[in-house]
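Lay summary. Proteins are chains of building blocks that fold into shapes, and those shapes determine what they do. In this project we predict the shape from the chain. Here is one chain we studied, written as its sequence of building blocks.
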Amino acid sequence: MHTEHLQNVRPSWVAFGWFIGAAVFSLLTLAMIAAGILDTEGARPADAFWLLLAMFLGYMVGGYFTGARVGAAPILHAVGIGLFSVVFWFVVNVAGEPFGGDAWRSLSPAFFAGVILLQIFSAATGARIGSRAARAATAQPS
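And here is the predicted shape, written in a compact code that computers can read:
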């Protein structure tokens, strides 16, 4: 069964999956700061690894919820979650410019692209696992 069609993408679940991913990422980051694994300034070299791991796990959970709920087009939903990050980043930066924010220059383009690809990969992994679990649950006789 091939479910990777644009007609199977639910934009509301893409946004919800992104929200869940961002929330779990934030929760993991705060837990690592409280445990002393991360520095509040993020200046240590090892902090990048832990932040990327938290991002991977967070967006994997967001992808899982999306895949388990929708059950179709897990890869396209994951790409949507990554693109939603770009849209959110753009809106936040445009809103911050009138107030003197310089967030446009805070990330290099290569790092930003890598983070988006990490989000897409982790959301796709979670969505694929979630959609398979949802299909397996509906296929079993009651």
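What the prediction tells us: Residues 109 and 142 are 51 Å apart (CA to CA).
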